């Protein structure tokens, strides 16, 4: 499991970000990213994933996000912003329960099971 | 009613681009059933094949020059029926529907291409019907990604809470998850509440 800070991704272009994510997930890594991807990057990620699916080994990805409230500078308005993004191979991330501030998932690694809450 | 369509028509006449309404959503959410219902209502013929095996639609279907005739006003636009968008395609899921392994693998390969095609079409559509299966959890990454992209590209859309004819459907869950968007509960299969959907389309896509 890899944890990536938003600073680590900031210096990368969208293309570099997507290839890095897909390459790592294809190798079986589970990525926990601080912040989120832009809508265009999400669409690009799905497109790239579809190109990389090889039917036998890599069947795609699962993405989950946890959002947080963010207040504007003056504190008058607040909007939801992605706080954490979790991306992993679809055949590893088996079950997820999601509520607004809580995410529970089970990753199956080989014959053993690992649980992440 | 007539006023609505007149306003819609006037807006259309001022547009240089033709109105192209794309049907987006998860595999098996009922996009093609809805496209068929719309096409049947307005043209008297269906648009594509439907089945209960996910990813039945694996390439984009386009029905050109669909006309709504309402109160003497006629509107023309295209319906674009797209393959369901998903983040994963596992051929093993198709085996339980009785497909052979080879058929399932072929279907999976075609489905991945179809998803890429559907995403590319986001650049071309001028309005979207985002079809969700009201019996399932609407808060999925595919739905979030589609909505995020529609908002970023300023493409107007209506969320269609489909399959309300099914006992386990819960369109209110979709309404509560997306309170800022227009949600219309319908049954595309039985044509239930489609009149309300057409009115919402007129309001949103005008």
Automatic annotation (TrEMBL), chain B:
This is 50S ribosome-binding GTPase. InterPro entries: GTP-bd (IPR006073), P-loop_NTPase (IPR027417), Small_GTP-bd (IPR005225). GO terms for molecular function: GTP binding. CDD domains: Era_like (cd00880). It holds the Pfam family MMR_HSR1. One of its GO terms (cellular component) is cytoplasm. Residues 20-163 form the G domain. NCBIfam families: small_GTP. It comes from Methanobacterium alkalithermotolerans. It comes from the Archaea. One of its GO terms (biological process) is tRNA wobble uridine modification.
